[in-house]
Write a structure and sequence with these properties.
Helix content: over 70%
Distance between the termini: 195 Å
Order of helices and strands: HHHH
Structural class: mainly alpha
Number of strands: 0
Length: 183
């Protein structure tokens, strides 16, 4: 330190007209830049002796191995995904074919059911028509029979009224005698 002060004083007296700045020096020959370089070199040597480069390389190798492992897993997963995609694509194609077959079968069944319904409806209509015609015929026969019965009853009553009006006891006797003589 004492040497530094002396050097600073000498530099100040040497160029009294000029302004000089004194550069600090340690041990008389180490400038500040040299001190920093020496400190850096010391730190680097300590790090090298402590095995820091080996640790860094080991960490980098571990990271590289981990990344490779992840890439291999990704490749495996991609292959599995491709297999699943192909499997599902095949299933979809099969499902579409099955759906088409189901639709065709349903149409065939629908057409068969429709034909049977139409046939059954025609048979039912014919049977109902026959039943209705039979009922109408029965009603007509009943109406005709009732009409005949009423006509016969009306004719009988009219005949009775005419006979009662036109025939007396003497006319009855003549008819009875005539009937007996014809026998």
């Amino acid at each position: 330190m004492h040497e530094l002060m002396i050097m600073a004083a000498e530099a100040a007296h040497a160029g009294e007209g000029e302004e000089h700045h004194a550069e600090a020096m340690a041990f008389g020959f180490l400038t500040p830049g040299m001190v920093v370089a020496l400190a850096m070199l010391t730190v680097l040597v300590i790090m090298w002796r402590a095995g820091v480069p080996g640790m860094v390389v080991g960490m980098l190798d571990g990271r590289i191995a981990e990344i490779r492992k992840q890439l291999d897993e990704a490749k495996t997963l991609r292959a599995e995904a491709e297999a699943l995609r192909k499997e599902y694509a095949d299933k979809i194609a099969g499902a579409e074919k099955d759906a088409e077959a189901m639709v065709a079968h349903a149409r065939e069944e629908g057409d068969a059911i429709l034909a049977k319904v139409e046939s059954d409806a025609a048979t039912l209509i014919a049977r109902r028509r026959q039943i209705a015609e039979d009922k109408i015929g029965a009603a007509e026969r009943a109406a005709v029979a009732e009409l005949r019965a009423r006509a016969a009853d009306a004719a009988s009553q009219a005949a009775q009224a005419l006979i009662a009006k036109n025939h007396g006891a003497s006319a009855d006797k003549a008819l009875v005698d005539q009937a007996i003589s014809s026998i």
